[in-house]
Design brief:
InterPro entries: Peptidase_S1_PA, Peptidase_S1_PA_chymotrypsin, Peptidase_S1C. The chain has helices at about 10-15, 60-65, 100-115, 115-125, 150-155, 190, 280-285, 365-375, and strands at about 55, 80, 130, 160-165, 170-175, 185, 195-200, 205-215, 220-225, 235, 245-250, 260-275, 295, 300, 310-315, 330, 335-345, 355-365. With about 375 residues, it is an alpha+beta fold. Among the domains are: about 145-155 and about 240-370, Thrombin, subunit H, CATH 2.40.10.10; about 160-225, Trypsin-like serine proteases (Thrombin, subunit H), CATH 2.40.10.10. The strands form 4 sheets. Strands 4-5-6-9-8-7 form a 6-stranded antiparallel beta barrel. A 6-stranded antiparallel beta barrel has the order 11-12-15-18-17-16. The protein has a two-stranded antiparallel sheet with strand order 1-2. The radius of gyration is 41 Å and the shape is globular.
Length: about 375
């Protein structure tokens, strides 16, 4: 057996000299140094290089290092398209991080910790925007869901007392603040025919208000406070998610008792309630000590509704409602407004066996309010 061992410098002479046979014609009889590789029989053809592809394989590294490529098998190379270069002088695009991303982040964090969602969204979307949510949003901390005291503390600053001066007397009702600059939703019958309107907030401040729009067919009205800012707007929920038996809280000003809180449950859904749209008819009944006249289940309550009436679908509740609660808030267990209290029966005769609230109250679903809001802001259906 013959062993060939190369020592340093053994082939320096060959490496430093040109191949004497390179470029000369080759013949079979020509002696060839066995240590020199034979010249190719033809001129190598240059392979075109794709400048826009990068071959992702380790064989490329091996070839560039002088390997013989004898790793066995055939490699299937997949080209990866190179990213197009930006135009000359064009600045690289930057990812925009605007208020939408910030809003989403705040909403996620607030939902995780419970309370504060409504305030955070209002601050980001603008102080004059209505805060709206689904019934899954929690205005109160999640640990306080259904707690009447916590709900009252969170929502009471968003409920006001409304005093309207009429041609033949006065009317007292309630309202719900929907924007921090003083937009308030109430019942049409609370402000109908009013020559002036005064609003008192939960902290005792008094404002003058003007009617923006009314819709007597839904018994809704939108009023706006003058020179108001920084008010706490309520969060409007989703009345379509309400179920019979759900816990509710009512806040209003019955008999002028500002900020009165009562609680109960949702007794029924989609009740047909008929109310009077005749200003003189309703005001006459109110001045006699009763509430606004309405009809339900074929019976009339609080007097005669008259010939001019409208019917709407309402939530029924057994939460105690009395005259003055009209236009106030019906609130779910999470602190969202799900209805505007509009019709209630309270016997005017204190000597009767059924004097006071008998647990028969109705509220306009908040989704009805939201769908009518643009019309009210434009002056209301009554002015079109």
């Amino acid at each position: 057996m013959t062993e060939s061992i190369r020592r340093s410098g053994d082939y320096d002479a060959y490496e430093n000299h040109e191949n004497p046979y390179q470029g000369a014609p080759q013949h079979a009889s020509t002696p060839v140094n066995p240590e020199w590789p034979p010249p190719p029989a033809y001129e190598p053809v240059a392979q075109p290089v794709e400048p826009t592809a990068v071959w992702q394989t380790s064989a490329q590294t091996q070839a560039s290092a002088g390997g013989d490529g004898s790793g066995g098998g055939t490699a299937l190379l997949t080209p990866v398209a190179a990213e197009p270069a930006p135009p000359h002088g064009a600045a690289p695009k930057k990812r925009t991080r605007g208020p939408i991303a910030l809003l989403a982040a705040v909403a996620i964090i607030a939902a995780a910790i419970g309370g504060g969602t409504a305030y955070g969204i209002q601050e980001l979307t603008g102080k004059d925007q209505v805060v709206s949510s689904s019934t899954t949003t929690s205005v109160v901390p999640s640990s306080k869901t259904g707690d009447v005291a916590s709900i009252a503390a969170a929502v009471s600053p968003s409920v006001v007392e409304i005093s309207a001066t009429l041609s033949g007397g006065s009317s007292t009702g309630s309202g719900v603040i929907i924007t921090s600059d003083g937009e308030i939703i109430t019942n049409n019958h609370v402000v109908s025919g009013a020559s002036s309107i005064k609003v008192t907030t939960s902290d005792g401040k008094t404002y003058t208000a003007q009617v923006v729009g009314t819709d007597s067919s839904k018994d809704l009205a939108l009023i706006k406070l003058e020179n108001a800012s920084g008010l706490k707007a309520a969060t409007l929920g989703n009345s379509d998610g309400v179920k019979v038996g759900d816990t509710v809280v009512a806040i209003g000003s019955p008999e002028g008792l500002t900020g009165t809180v009562t609680s109960g449950i949702v007794s029924a859904l989609n009740r047909d309630v008929t109310v009077s749209t005749d200003e003189s008819q309703g005001q006459q009944q109110q001045q006699q000590g009763g509430g606004w006249p309405f009809e339900f289940g074929g019976q009339q309550f609080n007097g005669d509704t008259g010939s001019s009436t409208t019917t709407y679908k309402a939530l029924q509740t057994d939460a105690s409602l009395n005259p003055g609660n009209s236009g106030g808030a019906l609130i779910d267990a999470n602190g969202n407004i799900i209805g505007i209290n509009s019709a209630m029966y309270s016997a005017a005769d204190a000597t009767s066996s059924d004097a006071g609230s008998i647990g028969l109250g109705f509220a306009i679903p908040i989704n009805t309010v939201k769908s009518d809001l643009a019309t009210l802001r434009a002056g209301g259906a009554d002015n079109n």
